[in-house]
């Protein structure tokens, strides 16, 4: 955090000054470790084993915040007796279908609800990255559940959780993660001692956590701990994601993602969403309790914002125009399709996959096999010049005279040359004012896409083809301003907020959305950002002139709430858990919820409210159901649905690991998304043969002085000067073993690529003793490429493509490689070296790593 | 220069007689630095902005003089950043004024070995033609059971996460209407 989010880290230091104890877990000792009280080095890819150990420590010692757990979590809920845990399935839960590598979730359901409609088709869910939808709302579940408030029932969630993690002992944490037992116990003790009525603890992760084949389950494990300790919805608590880009939160809220529409509404699927009703009902789940009930209004209002007057209740708001998914259309599938010649054109908008995406060579070979490519960026990045400067030109795999890709480079406007909102990591929208006009041909994306749409519509005018109706009927009449005819960003924000169609009045929030065509709303969760016709995201009330929550600086979704689920900061009766940790509470006299933040609860629903049995929608949420977006109003320690790889996180080894899974026969996540394609490969892991060909673990992260693929930092003189070279950090022990010299060169080889880097020998990396073996880890920055003021080989070239099954994010924080002294070969000899390693490792285009580990596989226990 | 001015111009004298006994402030100031004026004081205007690097969302104040960005500083009013910027944020003036920035459209024709110039409007027109052609070549009306697909898998897009919400909104809206659903973002990566 101190390296990649330094200014955010000031708050950790503030907390430390007030007595907070800071623990830092990382494969590499960083500036964060230097300022922490305790640093725990960890083997990359083993976080579930560590956190599972903490869960076990809490449960075995009964250190959970019992009142909170009983009131606000599903600990007491009884699970179906059909459920079989990984403990009894050697690393696989009940319901696994080996032919698809996915689960049937029926047996995971709560008791009595096995056929209640909660279970989802996880095959379709995986292909469409359905896990992302839960960012704005929880999973569906029938509201009425059986509970045992004593937590003694053998099939209640509490007991299931306890059995699931029983073997995640301090000894096991040491065996799997390489963390000494005493250090682990120091962490577990501090975490539990600093949680409860009077104290809260916070878990902060950087989104490298998502870049694992079990990434979602990492975060789930953290959420389980925080729920058990009563650290959710309370000040100083939570699970905080440090996102890495100025508006990456906004990029999922108003997604440019294949599987989502604004506000996490699913992109229609050809089989499950044939009609508007089927689509809206699949989100709304009629008959269930919680805030699902209004989804039909969000769906109708989005289509109304898209197709304006042409969208009517009679024509299902032009739902027939919507393109349909048939499966996985994610970025990695697209790149493989480019290599196979299925994609004609590609837009890159401020993104540099030649450096920033896993398997750089596949990225570049895909781009070299297009009809046309549009690159919009501030600088001449690697993804624009691959046809003449890529490493594949040196190896002869791309020949400029034979590469047909037509490339348009269009310069972009910078953040000070346009106005608009970024959504930062805390869901806070901040409006930026325009400082100057963009120079020369530089234009905003708003300009480019508005005018591209205008041209497309002009060219299609008069077309009678049904396929062109969606473009011709599109509501696309944004006012433009200034000498460049820049579309008004404020007009777009107003459409995102939503308005009453008849009068144009901006809506005050999503509760005003209607399903009768009387409202248009571009993104329901952002509704309220333009309430009263005022740009709420532009608010800049100085911090000294408001309370510490600072609710009048910018605007946070939903409804300007700064802490989600903050009803949980009060007890069942609505009283603060303690004076120290007071945040939102029930004011008996006024008969309403009040506090420092906007209460995340119906304002006048008293804590004592109990719905009549069978009540659905928001009315079905009781006065003590703090987790209002969940079907049962509870935080989930056990997820009967919504997570495709299991109701509880389980330690699996990364897709590439030098070690056998010490906990289960199943080696890696059995539901991980794999791409059997000749260009893609996975290095062998035990119990497969030849894993010793790639004996070392490598991980990557950021430098303070560089940003992502380097397009905004290797091009900036002061930053380039501060970090001028690609390098690899190795421990003194590994340097001795591999014959590496400090400040000399090394090259690293995987089954995909070989890259070179300057050697930095440092004790920031520690050899870990794991399973009576020494595991060496090396660390690389991933910012370098072949353009810019400073250049170097790209670390992402080393990775293959294996994805998390919930959200289709690649495993690019851990892989295996070999490390050798000296520079890499060049030209044709470079590919020969990689081919030699592939031969020795048994990697062929036909070989696929087994997804399910064989029962009597070599090395299996 | 009179003798008195000479003596008063001596830092040690100022250190001993003035308000700066440690000699780390006013006493040590040279005549030249006393005459300097901060660019932030002479700016024509200030735009309230946000840092474009990571997602902490530090407030920035962008100082403009004669239509050019002359300085970018942390916004001390911000409850998020309290006026601070990290090395990247502090370098954002260098980012937006970098001599490496491209300000002209560049075009590489198929099988070409060099960049060529191209007019922006022509480029936009050529791109629109190519979008329509790709759509025509790869359009899918229905699946093999006759269910609607309304799409093309012939067009892809990958966006960075420094795009504004308003931009992402228009991109998604236009691509959806084009039937182009292979649209992705750094948020997947």
From TrEMBL, chain A:
Domain spans labelled Molybdopterin dinucleotide-binding: 699-806
Family: Belongs to the prokaryotic molybdopterin-containing oxidoreductase family.
Region Disordered: start-end pairs: 597-617
Listed name of the protein: Formate dehydrogenase
A Gene Ontology cellular-component term: cell envelope
Cofactor requirement: [4Fe-4S] cluster
Domain (Molybdopterin oxidoreductase): residue spans on this chain: 3-380, 410-452
Subcellular location field: Cell envelope
TrEMBL record, chain B:
Xref: PROSITE patterns: 4FE4S_MOW_BIS_MGD (PS51669)
Pfam families: Molybdop_Fe4S4
Molecular functions per Gene Ontology: 4 iron, 4 sulfur cluster binding; electron transfer activity; molybdenum ion binding; oxidoreductase activity
Keywords noted in UniProt: 4Fe-4S, Iron, Iron-sulfur, Metal-binding, Oxidoreductase
Entry keyword annotation includes Endoplasmic reticulum: no
GO terms under cellular component: cell envelope
GO term, biological process aspect, one: anaerobic respiration
UniProt domain 4Fe-4S Mo/W bis-MGD-type: residue ranges: 44-100
Cofactor(s) annotated in UniProt: [4Fe-4S] cluster
Location in or out of the cell: Cell envelope
Organism domain of life: Bacteria
Keyword 4Fe-4S: yes
Family, as annotated: Belongs to the prokaryotic molybdopterin-containing oxidoreductase family.
Protein name: Dehydrogenase
Organism from which the protein derives: Micromonospora globbae
